[in-house]
Amino acid sequence: MKVLLAGAKGQLGSDLGPLLRNAGFEAAAFGSTELDITDSAAVFNTVRKVKPGLIINAAAYTKVDLAEKEKEKAFAVNSDGPANLGRAALEAGVPVIHISTDFVFDGSRALPYREDDATNPQSAYGESKLAGEAALAALLDKRVVIRTSWVYGVTGHNFVKTILRLASERDTLRVVYDQVGSPTWSADLASAIVEAAKSVRAGKAPWGTYHYSNEGVASWFDFAVAICEEARMLGTALKCSAIEPILTAEYPVPARRPAFSVLDKAKIKGAFGLRIPYWRDSLRSMLKELKGGGNA
Ligand SMILES: NC(=O)c1ccc[n+]([C@@H]2O[C@H](COP(=O)([O-])OP(=O)(O)OC[C@H]3O[C@@H](n4cnc5c(N)ncnc54)[C@H](OP(=O)(O)O)[C@@H]3O)[C@@H](O)[C@H]2O)c1
User: Fold this and answer.
1) 10 CB less than 6 Å from ligand 1?
2) What pTM was computed for the model?
3) Domains with residue ranges and CATH for the chain
4) Residue 257 Cβ < 6 Å to ligand 1
5) Residues in CB range of 264: below 8 A, 6 or more apart
6) Could you tell me the distance, in angstroms and rounded to a whole number, from the CA of residue 78 to the centre of ligand 1?
7) Are 210 and 147 in contact (CB under 8 A)?
8) Nearest 5°: phi and psi at 35?
9) Which of 21, 29, 174, 246 would disulfide-bridge 5, Cβ 3.0–4.6 Å?
10) Per-residue pLDDT tens over the stretch 139-186
């Protein structure tokens, strides 16, 4: 089966292309310069030319804080983009796998969020991603939407790389401990998406919305401590001797984040037979890969 992959050069997209090919898919992978999903004509033309059996959207506007200032741009990519892909998919009669976010929730719960829990985004980014889910749902029944959280990968900018950089430059780091969620290695998320693609190929995809992250929970502080510990165990020299837990209020940023965004993954595990790795094991694997590539 041929898969059209949009956003192929992002964290997730970079992991997804090779994994799709390993699973026997023909992946027609497009970075943002090759296919701009906000350009409706370009999306239609590309889908007509490629003739995919499945479209996967890994493209997104992910600059959470900047989105507060660039709301229009965030909505163009995160809402109009999936709508364009949805319309082209409808014309071609093919399904879409689309990725969304824990930021569609307000974070006021203390139990893992299920797919049918009430959404209430607190940021422009969260609003734009929820609008993208709604736009796709209004167009297409044959869709798998996977909400995920705290994504990091070997490619691109992310919390893991930021902490490694800061810990190599500074004696002390200050990291918030009152936001709790689940880190997600982009390679694990990509594997889950490949399982969903396989079920599309087999003609038995259970359409709908799903939650995926790595197993376990952490605060950003816990995550930062683990990054430094695991990196040191792999032989990375870091200057940092202390990580200080701080409150969100002590580190003001433009966009409001959910205080609690743990996702309940029972539905996706059941639907696609997934065994999801524990976040710290995946962090270790990612750091090994990063070091192996000479990046750490
Ligand atoms: N990162 C996270 O922590 C996180 C958390 C929850 C959910 N998610 C979701 O997970 C998915 C994958 O995110 P990611 O972490 O892989 O993000 P990412 O690394 O920022 O990748 C997104 C990719 O989309 C591309 N893109 C932006 N505008 C585009 C456009 N108009 N047309 C085509 N491509 C465009 C970007 O290209 P340029 O770099 O050239 O702009 C980038 O390569 C997204 O749906 C995101 O919302 C991410």
Assistant:
1) yes
2) 0.97
3) 2-158+184-214+261-279 (3.40.50.720)
4) no
5) 111, 112, 113, 114, 115, 211
6) 9
7) yes
8) -145, 110
9) 29
10) 999 999 999 999 999 998 999 999 999 999 999 999 999 999 999 999
